[in-house]
Amino acid sequence: MARKNKDPNALSVFRTLQVVFQTLHRYVPGFAGTMLAFSAFGGLVNALVSVLGVKLIFDALAANAGFGQTARLIVILLVTAGVLRVVRQRVYVIYYEKKQLELHRRMQGELFEAALRQDLGAYDDPKFYNDFVWAMQEADTRFLGVLGEVANFIDNTARLITALGVMLSIHWGFLPIIAVGVILSLLIRSKQIKIRHQVNNLEKPFWRQREYAARAFYLPEYAKELRLSKVGQALEQDLGNSIDGQKSAYYRLRHHLAFARIADVMVSQFWILAASNILMIYHMTVTGLITAGGFAAAQNGVWQVYWGITSFLYAFTNMGEHGLYVQKYLDFLKRKPALTVGTRSMPSEFESLEIKDLSFSYPGSEEKVLDGVNLTVRAGEKIAFVGYNGAGKSTLIKLILRLYDPSEGQILLNGVDIREYELEPYRRFFGALFQDFTLFAATVAENVLAAENDPARRDEILHALEEADFTQRLATMPAGLDTPLTREFYENGENLSGGELQKLGIARVLASRGKLWVLDEPSSALDPDSEAQFNRNLMHHGDGKTILFISHRLSTTRMSDRIYMLAGGKLLEYGSHNELMANNGAYAEMFNLQAEKYRRGQSNA
Predict the structure, then answer these.
(1) What is the number of other CB atoms lying within 10 angstroms of the CB of residue 566?
(2) 3-class SS at 419?
(3) Would you say 50 and 164 are in contact if contact means Cβ atoms under 8 Å apart?
(4) N or C: which end of the chain has fewer CB within 10 A?
(5) 572: enclosing H helix or E strand
(6) d(CA 167, CA 302)
(7) How far is CA 220 from CA 116, 486, 488, 498, in A?
(8) Angle 458-467/528-541 helices, nearest 10 degrees?
(9) Does residue 102 lie in a domain region?
């Protein structure tokens, strides 16, 4: 039976092997078997060259073989070793590297999919980030590490057996000497692994801080603020603090780690060197059992056996360390989202959206961002949500899109609780545009579709861009719809202004085929003329569509069928623009305040 790792989060050695080889076979069939077969062949040839070859040379010298015979033997050994190294290098460069990239692609893809299954609440949890970063950085490396350990085990087996035979043919006394050295080395090695794992656990949060600080300096969206403020100095300080934190994590255990490394050399290897040489010198000078040729062969054999056995045992202890990372990878893939996942298929058409007694608090907080909200939306209605910052408008949209689930209450689509629907089809039921929507480093067409470019939808993409008033900008792009956006990866990439970016986002909604459009501040980056044009296009293109939108510009809300005014997470009032103005409540006060700013020229919105 394999010794169980003391860490409760680590897999056993045999379970680690099972998981790794099943995963490798699933992702890259034939890869593991090919590498292990090649290791067995390489180990056999290495054994013949490095162990038997040395003995043959000294035996030839002891038998007074001539120079020519001895030289031929050496040439044969060198050519054999050279051919083996060339073949191994070619396998590594051509085959191994290719398969390694395939494995990386598949494993990273699974991690991406697992991350996408999580609700937004996961991103409020630092442990999620730590586990995600850990899995992304370590997953395929650790799986390949296990494969490498097994390959080395097979490689060393032939060499160890051959060296052991040579060594025992000279004198049996080397065996207990090596056994003591191996035991000492193994005890020290297990201590090193525990310390290294502790260091990794302490360092990981600081690695994330370092990556964040570094990312801010190379991403273009941070460039202006870095140059117009002192935030760059603050980030540099954060970078320094994170490095200091890593150093502190390492220094906290540095004495133990340094002592373990020194002890491994000074205790186990010094013991082997001293004891084996004393034994050989004794039998050369006193008993005559060992000749000069046997001395050289024994020296080689002793170290080959020692390194062979310690490699086996190190591989065993390394498996415990690899098992910790393999388990983290498995745990991340199995991580359950907080959202319940239903099985009901989506309806073909939208009829109604009903919100009943809806309340919500963000994970880790008891403060209610929404409190007892009730409303109903019918097919074809244009609904506006208004209110000052912090009113809960964007949170309400996130709940409707099932980026979070309510703390209390229900959201019903066509009379069915949205938690009963399949999650991904439910989200695809909407066409959504957020104020901080993302531009991808991809072509115009791919950005409009938010997916791979579909040649069958080119006319649809062009129509959406025209409706979003992007046609004039598109005409300046030499490759049209195939023009790459951003210059992060493409020298001929195009950068967009804030207003152009917003228009592209609008085109994305128009081309989404969503049954409901959900727009969070859709015209926030547009000038007043462009905003008016957008509103006309939205009404024209969205004729018959159900539209939910948030806007701080209350001139935009006048086109809606019904307006909901929120404050402090509660619904204060609702009705048409005229009805709310007649009520002379919070909405009327907010509208009149904005209108006064328009008259005084204090607002460009």
Answers:
(1) 25
(2) helix
(3) no
(4) N
(5) strand 570-575
(6) 6
(7) 25, 9, 8, 13
(8) 130
(9) yes
